[in-house]
From TrEMBL:
<dbReference type="InterPro" id="IPR001370">
    <property type="entry name" value="BIR_rpt"/>
</dbReference>
<dbReference type="InterPro" id="IPR050784">
    <property type="entry name" value="IAP"/>
</dbReference>
<protein>
    <submittedName>
        <fullName>Uncharacterized protein</fullName>
    </submittedName>
</protein>
<dbReference type="Pfam" id="PF00653">
    <property type="entry name" value="BIR"/>
</dbReference>
Amino acid sequence: MEVPDFQTDKNNLRYFQARLRTFQDWPSQIRPDKYALAHSGFVYLGKSDRVKCFCCGIECHEWKTDDNAWLEHQKHSPNCEYINMVGFAPAIEKKQFHFGSGSMTGSNLFVKPLCVQP
């Protein structure tokens, strides 16, 4: 899997399907699943469980099975234009999200963003 070039691919990565394609080699046993992460604006970096937001650049890893990608993205990058544009505040307040057939809640470990919003 090729890691996306964030400068070149940023416009394309606005689309869910483009982000989902980066998860081709995502280990199936890792939760949250690739659909929840892609919906939350993340792309897979191709190593372990590392993902990065296509918009704000925050990079996350060490996901736990009960982690909620939306909540953690909003919590650690509240000024992300993507998170604010999509606007899931009511769901964030309830601390529960539904993707596919499951729901997720929880916390996550994040590293500092690799870059700030452009």
